[in-house]
Amino acid sequence: MNELTCPCFMKTDLELAVDKLSFLEENYSCMNFPEYLKTLPKHELLCCLCLIDVVILSIKQKRYTCTITELIRLYECRENIILVIFVKYKFHPRL
To answer: Which pTM does this prediction carry?
Structure first.
């Protein structure tokens, strides 16, 4: 998701969180349970994708740091979400 300007409270809280990965894990099960993704409606999947992109953007802008293992996990989760969106909804999110 290239446009990270939505007025979402979850996104705002994530941007303000000190430990962004813990915040994601506490509020979105997609980080821990990939099978959970298949049960989510499209708008929830897009929301989760947006939140992951917020964390990745924070890392790119050097406002948040994590281990390489955590970064790989973020990208794997992002990839899984995109795959579920594409397969389940025949929808290609703007990447």
So the answer is: 0.82
| Residue given tokens 């990939």 in the structure block | 34
Q: Rounded to 5 degrees, what are φ and ψ at 40?
A: -85, 145
- The HSE-up count of residue 45 (CA atoms within 13 Å, CB side) is 26
Return the DSSP state at 61: T
3-class SS of residue 18: coil
Q: What does the pLDDT look like over 9-19, one tens digit per residue?
A: 999 999 999 99
Cα 72 to Cα 86: distance, rounded to the nearest angstrom: 21
Digit-coded pLDDT (tens) for 39-63:
889 999 999 999 999 999 999 999 9
d(C-alpha 93, C-alpha 52), whole Å: 14
Tell me if 85 sits within 8 A of 47, measured CB to CB: no
What are the tokens at 21? 């990965």
